[in-house]
Design goal:
alpha+beta; five-stranded antiparallel beta sheet; 8 helices; 54% helix
């Protein structure tokens, strides 16, 4: 308790010193700014004082927040830094009592041994279910992960199950991204319900080009009463032989509030190693889209290597 009070006293003294320094520069700056103007000197000093306080403590606060986030997201990095600092301080302490060789022997060498043992017995693997997107494991678990094991379930997921998980997680994330972007511009949270996955009874894999061309001429791709909200996982088809996935019927992520749509077809996802690549038809701003619709659809239908967007996932299907 005493140590805490002493620490608080030190912080308070530092705060007072900072405020005195800020007040001194505020008087100086306030007088300079008020010269040759109609602004009152006292008013100018107060404004400068408040502005400098805001800038200084705002900047300090950002540094503290960044440090805190770094400590939460990357604790092992901070631990390694702490170990290095600790042994360096120990080296300088021991150097006062012993010669440099002994100080080095009792401080720096143990640090090197600790890092060598850590690097031998522990490894880092991807774990996208965690905030840090990584996980520290033993050497044996690392070897299992390299073989394809999902360590949380202690098994290698079959390709079809793994790919299905990845696609479902991707589409959940995509819906949330669209919802968040829309709500950031709107105070009406009821609009979140209008952003979801749908199918259209007359819209299929055989006629989607003609359908979209016709709707472009009609100035509206879809209307809300035409769309049927669905569980998209029921329409998902996995092709493990060719490492692809898609839907047996076009699935539409619709943001009906602003008339924006993403259409996913039968070949929208491709897997290579632990990366999912995806493509979609993006329908937005109908007046602009109408001019380039034929070109867009032709490109979407005929390309072979147009999977330009890739997301890495772990052995459990998280990303």
């Amino acid at each position: 308790m005493k140590n805490t009070l002493e620490f608080l006293k030190i912080l308070f003294k530092i705060f007072i010193i900072i405020e005195i320094v800020i007040a001194f520069y505020s008087v100086f700056a306030g007088v300079i700014f008020s010269i040759g103007s109609d602004v009152n000197v006292i008013y100018s000093i107060i404004v400068c004082f408040l502005a400098i306080n805001s800038l200084f403590f705002g900047f300090t606060g950002q540094i503290i927040i960044l440090f805190y986030k770094g400590l939460i997201l990357y604790p092992l990095i901070y631990l390694k830094v702490f170990i290095i600092i600790f042994f360096i301080i120990l080296f300088f302490k021991l150097r006062k009592k012993f010669n440099k060789k002994l100080a080095f022997k009792y401080s720096i060498i143990p640090m090197i041994i600790i890092f060598a043992l850590y690097n031998y017995f522990f490894r880092t693997i991807p774990d996208y279910s965690s905030k840090t997107h990584e996980r520290i494991v033993t050497l044996s678990d690392y070897k299992k992960y390299q073989q394809g094991y999902c360590l949380e379930e202690d098994r290698i997921l079959p390709k079809d199950e793994l790919y299905k998980r990845v696609v479902i997680n991707f589409l959940k994330t995509k819906r949330w991204d669209e919802t968040y972007k829309h709500l950031s511009f709107s105070l009406n949270e009821d609009n979140e319900d209008k952003i979801n996955y749908y199918i259209h009874k007359d819209f299929n894999l055989d006629n989607y080009k003609e359908f979209l061309k016709q709707r472009a001429l009609e100035k509206e791709y879809f209307s809300l009463d035409e769309l049927q909200e669905v569980d998209y996982s029921k329409y998902l088809a996995i092709d493990t032989k060719n490492n692809k996935a898609g839907f047996i019927k076009p699935v539409i992520l619709a943001n009906n509030s602003i008339k924006q749509y993403y259409v996913y077809l039968d070949d929208s996802f491709y897997f290579k190693e632990n990366t999912i690549f995806y493509k979609k038809i993006h329908l937005y701003t109908l007046q602009e889209q109408e001019k380039n619709l034929d070109k867009l659809i032709k490109k979407f239908k005929n390309y072979k290597d147009d999977f330009t967007y890739g997301i890495v996932f772990d052995n459990c299907g998280n990303f």
